[in-house]
Amino acid sequence: MTTFPNIFSLQGETALITGGGTGIGRAIAECMHQAGATIVLTGRRENLLQEQVSRLGDRAHYVVHDVTQLDQAHVLREKAEALVGPVTCLVNNAGIHMKKEAVKTTTQEFQLVLDTHVLGSHALTVEFAPGMMERKHGSILFTASMASLFGIPKVIAYTAAKSAYVGMVKGLATEFSPHGLRVNAIAPGWIDTDMSRQAFAGDPARLEKILARTPTGELGQSSDVGWAAVYLASPAAHFVTGTILPVDGGVSIGF
């Protein structure tokens, strides 16, 4: 029987985190690395990836990759495996946000958001899942959103993409779990990141509204999401699959 705290350890695991150079992706990478995992960060901006890997040190690597280049998913897998061997945890975290009224959102804009979130994560899942199932060991995580759980105005493309994650997690978990591969998602609430700070700086009323409807009365920290990801990827979550875990200070159940 695995003992505490080893049951939460990621020693021996190798995690690939898309969008790992900034924000929540960076926090997931940091927490998984602290938990003992070898990590591979991916993203489009090499300078950010280099900075993060340099800061983390041993067991940290990166591969520059754009998830919207769907036909290059196999290249990412090959490069990652050449660096660290088999990947045991895939974190589909890369995404883009677009705030725009629904009637002003063009088909091209909608498609770009879907390509980044939905088709990008599917392409990587198709690449990494077979090896995990063959080894009877693996975990796939998706970064969902409050937009997966309830309506938020002026983010229709983002809402559609993040809502799709809910269906993907349930469908993939049903298909993959009998083969030793668990699939889950985290739905972050409003988190204190560089991006959110910039948004709130120009819209203090929005921050006030968010805090008013958050039962804990505060913004979350990126590490709150990071440690939730560690749990879901660890042996402690052996019997957890197909779930959407809100990390939101109670927003999704509060009034």
From TrEMBL:
SMART domains referenced in this protein's UniProt entry, alphabetically: PKS_KR
Domain Ketoreductase as annotated: residue spans: 13-193
GO terms assigned for molecular function: oxidoreductase activity, acting on the CH-OH group of donors, NAD or NADP as acceptor
Coiled coil: none
Family: Belongs to the short-chain dehydrogenases/reductases (SDR) family.
Name the record gives this protein: SDR family oxidoreductase
Lineage: Bacteria, Pseudomonadati, Verrucomicrobiota, Opitutia, Opitutales
